[in-house]
Amino acid sequence: MSALDAAAPHGRESRHAGWLELFFDLVFVAFAAQLSHELHGDPGLRDFAVFFALFFPPWWMWINLTVSANLFEDDGARRRLLMLFAMLCLAAMAAAVPEADTTRGAVYALGYAGTRLVLLGLWWPATRFPAPNRVPRWRPLSYCLLSGLLWAASAAVPPPWQYAVWAVLIAAEMVLLLTARGRGVPGRLDTGHLVERVGLFVIIVLGESVLGLVTSMDDAWTARAAVVAVLGFALLAALWWSYFDFGSTTAELMLGSAGAARAYLLARDVAGFLHYFVTAAILCMAAGLATAVEESGHAHLAEGAVWALAGGLALYHAAHAVIALRFGRSPSSVAVWAVPGIAIPVLVAVASDALAPWLAVLLLTAEAIVHLLYARTLSARRRKAAAA
Q: Of 97, 155, 202, 371, which one has the fewest beta carbons inside 10 Å?
């Protein structure tokens, strides 16, 4: 979903997110706030490692449940109760985030185990579908039930071995998914619905970034803080503009025009794996921007804060570059915008000791705006060439 791979919508009508899905997303507002808060101030390498580790399981469950809702369009009481229970489990995981790497690890593990059982409940009816859409029973039993039981058992494992168990279980889920290659998926994905759902998650993390800017002003009610907050908002606005004008449109076109098997693989890689890095990058930026507002009166940002902010922007562009390559763009066309998009934030981070907080945010905002303008120029040229 590269912001620089502009395309026009393919015009295919698609269903939209239902009220239950939108209600379900609310728990991720709390999750995003908890995770982003853990990177406020001056995070170290351990803090970043814990952040990325704790973010993946809920993200992975969200994308699994989203695909389930996409394939099984059902608004019955059974599905509603399952999804509400999943919300409760994810809320428990969110509450455990501040100490999930120490005293609350058991709650985090049990919450995730509960979501695997929800996934089993959603997929089990598909084991009774008529061929060729029938799902083999061993797949939900291994991918959902066995995984859930092992996650529940991990609650009794003391740290740090508990985290090694989690890593092994997540890796096993990845292996099961990658080896399946779409076999046993009952029907074609509704690509428009999937792109919309992923876009809504991006809106959630962008919203957390805006909320962080607003609440951080409580601790720094000064003109400098206001300047940094305005620059930070401009940065987020540029990311929103480029993502939804070009990135999500390109994704819907590429997924919608692909065959069923290729559409599944593209959706798995782009929506499932690569958007983890897109959304994680925005949450890092949210924490860095909030800290920049709070420390606007300092000579420069703390090292951890600037890497959360600038490193987050570099990761955001890097993830989009890989997405563009996955969609078949040539390396040379991607490098034109990806190299400066990654290099400039890294240079800002390296030189941050010589940059006031407002200047560091200004440089990153300028990069995001130039990125957007380049995308618009490229899009206009393509439309002109197509019309000719």
A: 155
